[in-house]
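User: Design a sequence. Structure:
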């Protein structure tokens, strides 16, 4: 689990050992989920992007003061966490985290791929990294799927991240999960955010 997420929302329950986790671009995209908007002014998290999220998820804005108190844990590559979306109200354990960076410092060359490479490289014990170009709503995006090894818990779990560029800088939406099964159960929320993504005014 990303240490920054732990610092913001607290420790998760003890993890069970997994082996043989694999990454796939699939997922139950046809699963029906209730929807709500996030990112626009007046929503729980005001962001450079807006997207649709499953209703039961709980959104918590991460302020600059909180990031400053977190110290090194409040950064991953050139980005800092802006919004943490908790899946616990849905009966699952995992998070969608929105990370953002300032214009001009978010990625060399200002491309989603360059930004995402920095973000993933700042993970601990990442492996099996796969990048691909895609569309998120109408925006050009880069996605990454990879596995992370938690040595202390003896867990290997899949993670997914999506990067886009905005006039305010780069944005990464990251999906974790307690384990491979939880990650898979949370993929519809990630795919919903991806297909509904747009720039805020």
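Assistant: Done.
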């Amino acid at each position: 689990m990303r240490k920054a997420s732990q610092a913001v929302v607290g420790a998760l329950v003890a993890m069970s050992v997994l082996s043989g986790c694999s990454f796939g671009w699939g997922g139950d995209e046809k699963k029906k989920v209730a929807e709500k908007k996030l990112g626009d002014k007046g929503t729980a998290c005001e962001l450079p992007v807006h997207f649709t999220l499953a209703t039961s998820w709980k959104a918590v804005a991460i302020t600059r003061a909180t990031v400053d108190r977190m110290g090194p844990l409040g950064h991953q590559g050139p980005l800092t966490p802006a919004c943490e979306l908790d899946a616990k109200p849905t009966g699952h354990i995992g998070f969608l985290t929105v990370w953002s960076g300032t214009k001009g410092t978010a990625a060399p060359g200002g491309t989603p791929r360059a930004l995402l490479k920095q973000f993933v490289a700042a993970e601990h014990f990442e492996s099996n990294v796969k990048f691909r170009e895609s569309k998120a709503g109408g925006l050009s995006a880069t996605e990454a799927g990879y596995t992370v090894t938690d040595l202390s818990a003896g867990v290997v779990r899949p993670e997914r991240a999506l990067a886009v560029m905005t006039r305010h800088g780069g944005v990464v939406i990251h999906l974790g999960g307690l384990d491979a099964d939880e990650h898979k159960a949370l993929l519809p929320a990630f795919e919903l955010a991806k297909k509904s993504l747009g720039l805020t005014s």
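The mean pLDDT is 81. The chain has one domain: 31-199.
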